[in-house]
Amino acid sequence: MSIVKHxxxxxxxxxxxxxxxxxxxxxxxxxxxxxxxxxxxSNESPLGPSPKAMRAxxxxxxxxxxxxxxxxxxxxKRISEHYNLPPDYFIFGCGSNELIxxxxxxLLYPGASAVMSEKAFVIYKIICGMFGAEAVExxxxxxxxxxxxxxxxxxxxxxxxxxxxxNNPTGTMVKEKDVRKFMDKVPDHxxxxxxxxxxxxxxxxxxxxxxYVREKRNVIVLRSFSKAYGLAGLRVGYGMAKPEIIQVLExxxxxxxVNSMAQIAAAAAxxxxxxxxxxxxxxKKGAQLIMxxxxxxGLxxxxxxxxxxxIKVGNGFEVFNELQKKGVIVRPMAPYxxxxxxxxxxxxxxxxxxxxxxxxxxxxx
Length: 365
Ligand SMILES: Cc1ncc(COP(=O)(O)O)c(C=O)c1O
Known about the structure:
- By secondary structure, the chain is of the alpha/beta class.
- It has two domains: about 140 residues, Aspartate Aminotransferase, domain 1, CATH 3.90.1150.10; about 220 residues, Aspartate Aminotransferase, domain 2, CATH 3.40.640.10.
- It is built from 14 helices and 13 strands.
- The strands form three sheets. Strands 2-8-7-6-5-3-4 form a seven-stranded mixed beta sheet, sandwiched between helices. Strands 9-10-13-12 form a four-stranded antiparallel beta sheet.
- A hairpin with an 8-residue loop joins strand 12 and strand 13.
- The longest helix has 24 residues.
- The model has no long low-confidence stretch (mean pLDDT about 95).
């Protein structure tokens, strides 16, 4: 008898996440030299990892026979100074994705629901499905969260509201005043999750959501070392919330979920704010270049605020395929019900120019 028959029905219904395609995989499939492929598909750092993190990792190699410190003492101490928040306000995850899963373990179950935008980061919906909770998807205003409608969508059984800001994949940001109005009215029986994976590299001012954490509201702010510090391969993210919330989420954390190398690199990266500023400047300049070129090609786009942007290209999947044949990996947006769009990560100047010249040959032959 097949064991599949006995699998948790919630898990069985989940459609796994489709990540950006790795360079090596595309190279194997198309018989192209990986050296000739650029990946602008996963909002990764085009400047590599933080140099300070790399130096710290090299030094740490000889200690890798030890298990990690499950409590992440040094990283916790360093990050607590960085934010001027007590150490017990932090929880660390194998990427901020794992923190979303901890939230699912604790607050999402059959009979509970979570509110999110219809075009928000898809992991929220996947996690709802995995735990048998209802995902209440709220239409956006254009490509931006409609916080007023999200507030109205909260029901008695709602346990979580996900506010992805800036939102991946649409690249839009909600305004401080809209967040304030939302927070003034949000009921006490829900946890508001501000997913701010791109916070440090935005070149527009972010709403001050940490003030709600300091006020001990039912809020968790999620951030990541993957984007601003270029450490996506190490998998380290963190959540900031009042200790009562952190203690609940800690219950589903495996003891060694964040490896030693990741802890060491992340602590060192926090001292590399010069790298973060350099990255931000690279993205801002790259965004200007791509926007100008798109305007010249007559393409509609969503002006970015961080390191990725949406461009309306006609048939998104076809353009994604054609770009891939030319060694440029981007993301088709059909899975987000945006079949005419692609999402491109902002790269180095050379990568941006290569993307634009490939795009030009496809959309205006
Ligand atoms: C909005 C958002 N949240 C979370 C994540 C996950 O980041 P991490 O690498 O920290 O798991 C991503 C990654 O792309 C993201 O875009």
